[in-house]
Fold this protein.
Amino acid sequence: HVQLVESGGGSVHTGGSLRLSCAVSERTSMFYVMAWFRETPGKAREGIAAIYSRDDYTDYADSVKGRFTISRDSTKNMLYLSMSGLKPDDTAMYYCATSTRTYGLVLDASRYTYWGQGTQVTVS
């Protein structure tokens, strides 16, 4: 049973930085792709960053490109999201997710099987 546990959320001022962590119970190399999503009440879950395990190729939503960086540490089975230049619009619950599927849009939530419980980020 795959488990993902996020941490690192909190409250920051506009322009601040945070680093989210996601502890994965299995080797990250067993997943084809891993990603971060975020969700606010009344809006669909938004895929914001993804990383492929085979070559660490990354992809980002336009809303975070240049401000957020996704990375992983395969030796620790960890996934990270470094966020800088935070804005109030970044306020959301942030989730990590993993997928063994080799097809589908990389920032589409339907591609992902395993999800964490979320960590709240508030920017004011």
In short: The chain is about 0% helix and 45% strand. The chain has a mean pLDDT of 96. The first strand starts at residue 4 and ends at 7.
